[in-house]
Amino acid sequence: MTGIPFPIERGHVLAFARALGEETAAVPPTFPIAFAQFDPDWPLRMQPGKPWNGSGAGPGVSSNGTGGLHAEQEFEYFRPIRVGETLSARRGDGRTWQKPGSRGVLHFTERHFEFYDADEKLVARSTTVSVRVEEAR
């Protein structure tokens, strides 16, 4: 299995569901984004002793092309995600584009994430869009 191992642990699923205000043992529909907690290179993951440049951290702040604001996310499922399995998360770059905004140029970045099971079957796909403002001078 290639990619970032993403164990689907009952405690992690329950904590995620509770953060959403749900009390369920089922895997919530937005749970695949939690794979970032297992990715040591995730640019928005906090690291001891380093400044955090998280979403919306401010104008011009960027971490490896991220930063700015989380603008959109969608999930597509090919089967339910099951507690107890380990998925493999794989990243891919998507489109980039820009358009004028009231405060400056808006830069959009799309990223794709695919989640495979132990049999290398595609379980879910996610697309994320972030936007960063390049303030007018």
UniProtKB/TrEMBL annotation:
Pfam families, alphabetized: FAS1_DH_region
Task: Specify the FAS1-like dehydratase domain's residue ranges.
Answer: 15-124
Could you name the domain of life of the organism this protein comes from?
A: Bacteria
Gene3D superfamilies in the record, alphabetically? Hotdog Thioesterase
**Signal sequence: where?**
none
Q: Where is this region: Disordered?
A: 46-68
* Protein name according to UniProt: FAS1-like dehydratase domain-containing protein
Query: What is the originating organism of this protein?
Result: Acrocarpospora corrugata
Q: Which taxonomic lineage does the organism of this UniProt entry have?
A: Bacteria, Bacillati, Actinomycetota, Actinomycetes, Streptosporangiales
